[in-house]
Design goal:
globular; mainly alpha; single chain
Length: 261
């Protein structure tokens, strides 16, 4: 076993679970949906994605395989984001939905990038030095910060969809929708400019985790979860694990450091 942090272990386990889920279902796991139904060899691509996720997740836990596993996962997720997520932004640049969807993938890419930057070997240092080490980690943090801003904006753009998801025992649902949107925006800005970035990254990952526990898990426990809600649950957990990895990348930085990205 080769564990760089708790977040690393949770993220690797999540990738393994997503891979198993895809192989069992013979379809794309929730985080890889939005593939056109008419795409040639769609089923084969679904199995390939599941296999990559499973193999990379296992590799991240094995010292000798961690570097190539992180490299493959990072490149694969980055290509996925560019091919299947960014294109929706190009097609509808004034709509918030594509930014939210792309942001979800960007968080996972950021986590894979952090792990790649950590585990990179001699070959990577020779040929891809710009993407590893401190430079790579900073790039991953920028991507994460941009994703948080997309999440924040979506809370404002789709408050009518967000407010009903607030647990019933909390008052003022619209307030909480706007409040969590504002905290995502603030955290994204903090990560990008380097003001209290470690605190912002940790709190944003915690907030995503609380969404999982307070919104989606109760629906699952009550048996009221639809196929769409199940997808949201899996995505929310995956984002929590990925955000945890990015937050772990700040572990050597003071909580209240300023101008340190």
């Amino acid at each position: 076993m080769h564990i760089a942090s708790v977040g690393h272990a949770v993220f690797a386990a999540t990738m393994i679970a997503l891979g198993i889920m895809g192989l069992i279902q013979g379809d794309f796991a929730p985080i890889w949906q939005s593939v056109p139904a008419g795409l040639p060899a769609r089923e084969a691509l679904a199995y390939l994605c599941a296999f990559i996720s499973l193999a990379a997740g296992l590799g991240l836990l094995w010292r000798r395989a961690a570097a190539p596993a992180a490299r493959v996962l990072f490149v694969y997720l980055l290509l996925w984001m560019l091919l299947f997520k960014v294109r929706f932004i190009v097609l509808a640049p004034t709509q918030e939905g594509p930014y939210q969807s792309c942001g979800e993938t960007a968080v996972i890419v950021a986590a894979a990038w952090v792990l790649y930057a950590w585990f990179a070997g001699d070959w990577d240092r020779r040929w891809l030095g710009f993407a590893i080490g401190d430079k790579g980690v900073r790039g991953a943090r920028v991507l994460y910060g941009l994703a948080l801003i997309a999440f924040g904006l979506s809370h404002f753009a789709y408050v009518n969809l967000t407010a009903p998801l607030v647990p019933g025992w909390l008052p003022a649902h619209v307030f909480w929708a706007y409040f969590t949107g504002s905290t995502f925006l603030a955290a994204g800005a903090a990560v990008l400019i380097g003001i209290y970035a470690r605190l912002a990254a940790a709190l944003s990952a915690l907030q995503i985790g609380l969404f999982t526990l307070l919104v989606w898990v109760p629906l699952l426990a009550a048996g009221h979860i639809s196929a769409q809600h199940w997808t949201e649950l899996v995505v929310s957990w995956t984002l929590t694990a990925a955000g945890w990895v990015v937050a772990d990348s700040y572990r050597d930085m003071p909580w209240l450091a300023v101008n340190r990205r």
